[in-house]
Structures are given as C-alpha cells and as structure tokens.
What does this fold into?
Amino acid sequence: MEIRQLMYFIAVAEELHFGRAAKKLGMTQPPLSQQIKNLEESLDVKLFHRTKRKVTLTEAGQYFYREAAKLHGNLNTAIQNAKLIDRGMLGTLKIGFGPDYGTLTKILKIYEQEYPNVQIQLEQMPTSEQLIALDKKEIQIGLLPGPIERQNIESKIVAEHRYKVVLPVDHPLANEEGGIDLIDLKEENFIMTPREIGSAYYDSIINICNKAGFNPHIRKKTHELQTVIPLVAANMGIAIVPEMLAYFRREEVVFLPINNCDDTLKNCIAWNVEAKSPLIDLFLEIAEGI
It folds into this structure.
C-alpha cells in the first residue's frame, strides 16, 4: 500500500463518484479506478459497493475512511511541522544566561513575537557552567561574557557594558557623581566573582585596577555576579561591575562612573559549532539586530 493510494481512496470516499474524485485529484478516471482496485487487493478488503448508478462505502470502507482521514491529517501536520523545524520555526531552544537581563529581555521580546511556536527553556548559570553545558550540548545558546576562545565554541558580541564602581550609600566617596578616580580606592576591600567562574570579568577588573596603579585587595568572592550588590549594601566591601548590574540596583548602594576608564564587558551569544541549527541561526539574526 502506498500513501498516494490512501489519498485516492479518501477522495473517492468523500465524493462517492469516481469521475468527480478524478477531477479533484487532477487525473483521469481509469487510472484512479485501477489504483482503488489495487488498494483493495493489497488489503484483501472490499472498500466500495459499485453499481452503474452509485458508489457507496462498505462497512469496512467506512471504518477505513475514518482511520485514513485521521492518518492523512496527522501526515499533513507532520509534514508542516517538519518544514517548520527545518526552518528553525518550531522546536525547543535551551538558553543559558548570566546577569545581563537587559540584553536577554530585548532578544526574547522580539524572538517570541516572530517565532511563537518555539519553546524557550531558560537556565541561569555562571560562565563556567554555561561553557560546560555548551560542550555537552545541554544548552544550545549561552549568553555570557566573552569573546570565547575555544575550538568547538563560536561567539558573537551582542552588547558592551561600561564599568562602574558600586559603593555603600554611606561611603565617603558616595557623592562623587562626576566620577571616581580608582586610585582613591586602592585601600578598599573588593568583592568579586572568582576567576574559575568567569575569567573575562575577573581579568578585566584586575587589568582596570592595574592600569590605575594598584592590585585590588579581594576580600569576598561570590559565585554569582549579581550577588555582589547586596554584599556591597551590607558594607562588606566595594565592587567594580558592568553597568548592566544597575538592573539589581537597591537603595543602600550607589553606582558611580569611573574616570579615565574606557574598558567594557563584552557580552556574547555563544554556541557549539557541532550543534549549529536553524533555531540558533534565527536567534542570532535577532540578537545581531538589537
């Protein structure tokens, strides 16, 4: 039995007239009649009662029509879904992300509007965990500081964030809204994430302080960058963070610009080159356009 024979059978069953069914199918009546005959022989079932005046379905034919119609509907759905998946417009996209909520929100707002049939699964994780998840293909997209220098992972910069100093609101320099000279903070205790969690941020802060003429005294380390803010609020130290963390701003701290500092944290979209797919391609197109 062939799929096209099912299509022929459904047409005849719906029209109950070989001539009209043949016209509907864009063929002549004799080959249609032969195909129905072949179908009945392959099934060893009589599907139609035929007389010179009319064509009717047998009881077996009625049952077979109901099931064939379901199969036809499922087949059409499967075909359409396969096409959507091939174009990256249907499926599941697993995304790992860090504290750059602003960039993620901008991308997802557009992506959800354009590709509503794609299921988005989000998991917040540090840079190190995102890289492991990308290696293992547990996520398809990572949103993390970069660029990433790994053979199996490619990345594109989608946002750059200037650095700011975060101070407790009662700090002596908290009113320096015009900007902070970093050298004035050389005796301070700094709060940072450890390098093994994410080298891009850690190395950048060390470099900024070195250029200002000192090595920062790191008192506290936290595994999530956004938790730096409440630690500063608790007077456990100060921090240099990318301005995107102003998303987590609270009354007990102030964010101040840094004088003579053009360094930025580059946030990237990253993916495993071995797992590239239309889903990822469409996500990248939107990310590049924001």
About this structure: Residues 3-86 form a domain with the Arc Repressor Mutant, subunit A fold (CATH 1.10.10.10).
